[in-house]
Each structure stands twice: as C-alpha cells, then as structure tokens.
C-alpha cells in the first residue's frame, strides 16, 4: 500500500530520453529528414541562440563492416539514423540531448559545468526505505507516459517513406523495453523472409557500451520523473549465488504459490504486462512490435535446461574473464575466442575463453537461469531484474577497464558486425551516441560502483583527468622520446667529460674565479657544464 501511494503521488509528466523524439515524429520532419527540435528556453533549434548546439548533417562512419549481414538498404537501422534523419542537433561543450537541453553524463548545473559523481550500490545494502523507494520508482516508470518520445509501429517503407508517420505513445519503462527489442529484432526482408543473424546490441563489440548507455539513460529518466537527482540503479551481485535471492516479494517478486511460471500476487510486479515478446508473430506479419500488452511477466528461476546452464556464475569464472587481455578478437561475434567481451557476454566458456554457443556463461547464464521473460533476448527487459543484472555486468566491464587501461584504439574501428564499429551510432538512440564514446571508465561518465570505489579526487585532480587521459594515450611515444633523450644526454656528458679531462691535462693550474682589473682584456669567456 505504501508503494502504491508513493507511486501515485509521484506520477507527474517529465521529459524522457530514448528513441524517436515526439517533435520529430511527423511528416514534415521525416520528409525533410531533419530532427533539430527547439530548446524550450530560447525557442531556437538545438538551443543555438544560447550557444548550446546547432543543426548539422550527420557524419556516418565509412569503415567496412564484417560479413555477418550480407545485405544493404533493406533495414531501417543500417547507418543509423540516416533512413529517418540525416540532420540532427550537434551539441557543444557539456550539453547533450535531442535538442541540447540536457547535460552530458557526469555534469550538472544550468550551464553543465558542475561535475557530479553518483554511486551505484548493492541492492542488499540498501535500507528498507531505500529499497521500497526503488521499487516504487520502477512502478512509477511503468505508469508514467513518456512526454518527449514515441515509438515507431511501422518501418520507413510502411510509413510510405515518411509521408504516413506510424508512431504511438508509450510509458517510460516500456520505452526502454521497446528500444532493447528494436536493437535486437530480426531484419524483415519481405514476404515471410527474415534475417536472424543481426543484432545491434549483442553478440559483438558494442554489447557492453550499448548496455552502458541504456542504463545511463534509464537511470536519468527515473531521476527526471521522480525529481530524485541522486537516484542510481542498484546492482545484484550474483556471483556464487545458489538461487535467485532477489526473487522474493520483498524485492523483485516471489514465485506464485500455484503456477510456478508466474510471480507472487503479493508483488505488484505480478500485475505488470509485458510487450515485444512475440518475435515469430511479428516476423510472420512483417511488422514491428507496437507495444500491445502480451500477458504477465514469466519467471521460473532454476527450472531451466541444466545441460545448458547448470548454475549461476562463480567468482572464479568472473576472475578468469577479467584476466583476458583482449577486448575483442577474430570474427568479433559470438564465435570469438579469448575475447573478454564474448566471454563476459556468455558465448565463450568462462574457464577457457573458447567459444561454445551450446552453453551459456556469465551474462547469458543469468538470463537462461531466470527461465521466463528474461530468457528471450528481444523481450528480456520486461523483467525488472534486467536492470539489476546489467548493472552488475557493467561493473565487471568497469573492472576490466580499470585493470587493463585500454586505449580507445583497442575498440575495433572496422570489420565488426553491422552497427558495432567504433564510430557507428548506436541503434536506436536519439540523441546520437557512438560506440567508442562509452569505452571509457565510468567515473568519466559520472558514476561509480560502491564495491569499486577509490579515494575521492579533489577538484584539481578532477581538472587534470582529461589531460592525464591524453597523456596516457601517447605514453609510448613519450617513453620513446625519453629513451632517445637519455642516450643523447649520455653522449653529450661523455664528450664534455672528455674535453674537461683534456683541458686539465694541458693546464698547470686552474684559472682564478676573481681576477685583477688589468687582466680583463685578456680573458676569454667560457661556459662549463
């Protein structure tokens, strides 16, 4: 009752961040292929009058793609978002958003100049009131319409190339469910034909950066609709867990007493309706998920196929994964060996790092273990355990970044599966984010994990962070220059010593430091090291 009342009181319409901006979901914007909405404070596109940004052509990556998707011009997500828009807002400085009306992650204040660091905490370390507030926030998001964003219910072709817009409203929580579906859905080829070997958020290098952005945006939306600027997503540390310890009515919903595939009626999650779970139906109809309710959340943890996923991941498996030095390797998909990304995602054995798609490890193991809505990729975000799980996966990614300190060049620039090259824009986010922009430590994006926290930096150190990062990226050249400088110095020192020794050998006495005035005309000035 307390949670219901809290949610009811908090239901207020606030801006949302996600997919198609409502201001651009119209015939004029689609035909002009331009999405540059005005910033409400000054009324100019992209807040240009306030120097926040300007409307500019989108610069698409020309780097070659991998062989996994052998088509061109058949999927709206190719070269995102150019099928829909080729001009969007480019924000300046620390401004961000589809109209440059927000701050980049990690910044706040009216001019986005104030650095801010938030901490994500273990859900079992929250107080009862903090935990209840988190659950209420989830329910609020499920019942609050997104004010600024809508979802597409048809392809660009079905929209008659923009002249017949097909969009609909959606609540804040389901907006993110739909985005996860849209990024991972199959390609519709016409008739009854589809192409399944495509995913803009999984099975390739972008898996970890994509979900990092997804969680940051989801976190920000909760902050907006609740007015709680300090809110952060909690995580569930599932290492060595013997069962689903968050699957209780106190947390994410217990098991139904009669039907083990449903949630306990004592949890308000039992009343939630899922969307975007019927991929075969959409494929047969050559249609997109239109966010129609499709039934309750399904979950039967532990009653999964044990031959595929015998148990939840162990600490030892996580540590082995962290020891891998290569972020990506080989084909850069689910067949990659010795790849940190592929091992963490769960397509490679967490004890050998050899690809084995008949088994599900680490990230994938948790999804399969839940044995329900979480176990189907496109609709997995319907279960609120999704955010707890992916927050912990992101923390493992963060541990790897801190341990190995990779340069940006470690993230593949070319030949990755479609949508996963370093400079590709992530599907389906508007505003636009490139994969490589989130291949960096979380503190630079404004958040940290409680169990990874390091001593707080003072303001001077915070000021130095970007310069230290640049220095780190050019350190091999700095080391080389230092070595060469050392050699040159040694040679010069040797020559000077030789000259001094020779001079001492030819002179019977050392010239005095002070000389008589009459000797000035005969002196020759020499400088000595």
From TrEMBL:
GO biological process entries: melanin biosynthetic process; pigmentation
Its membrane topology: Single-pass type I membrane protein
Principal location class: membrane
Entry GO MF terms: identical protein binding; metal ion binding; tyrosinase activity
Pfam families in alphabetical order: Tyrosinase
Residues that span the membrane, as ranges: 474-496
Tyrosinase copper-binding domain mapped to chain residues: 202-219, 383-394
UniProt keywords, alphabetically: Copper, Glycoprotein, Melanin biosynthesis, Membrane, Metal-binding, Monooxygenase, Oxidoreductase, Signal, Transmembrane, Transmembrane helix
Signal in keyword set: yes
Enzyme Commission no: 1.14.18.1
Subcellular location: Melanosome membrane
Enzyme class, UniProt record, top EC level: oxidoreductase
Names of required cofactors: Cu(2+)
Keyword Glycoprotein: yes
InterPro entries: Di-copper_centre_dom_sf (IPR008922), Tyrosinase/Hemocyanin (IPR050316), Tyrosinase_Cu-bd (IPR002227)
Signal peptide (residue range): 1-18
Family label: Belongs to the tyrosinase family.
Organism: Nyctibius grandis (Great potoo)
Full protein name: Tyrosinase
A cellular component annotation (GO) from this entry: melanosome membrane
Cross-referenced Gene3D superfamilies: Di-copper center containing domain from catechol oxidase
